[in-house]
Specification:
Blueprint (H helix, E strand, L loop, with lengths): L19 E6 L16 E6 L5 H18 L12
Antiparallel strand pairs: 1-2
InterPro entries: CalX-like_sf (IPR038081)
Protein name: Calx-beta domain-containing protein
Length: 82
């Protein structure tokens, strides 16, 4: 095997926050036979904030509705729209 995956549970604390990062480092590997850690022993994990996702969706819906109401079917091109 050349790779393995690990699960890291992310617990939502219900607070609005920016993206957060942490480092995962493998220090010791145990197993039967020849087991070795490769060059990449450390990685940075970024938890991308989704706290504002619903508000962003609502804003996109409002803007889309606004611009759809402003469109006129009698204009000859998109550039003629206001």
């Amino acid at each position: 095997e050349y790779e393995k995956y690990i699960d890291i549970e992310i617990i939502d604390d219900k607070h609005d926050e920016k993206d957060e990062t942490f480092t995962v480092e493998i220090l010791l590997v145990e197993g039967e036979g020849e087991v070795a850690i490769g060059r990449n022993r450390r990685t940075v994990v970024t938890i991308v904030s989704d706290d504002n996702a619903l508000m962003n969706l609502v804003n996109v819906h409002k803007l889309t509705s606004y611009y759809m109401r402003k469109l006129s079917t009698y204009k000859s091109s998109w550039m003629d729209q206001e």
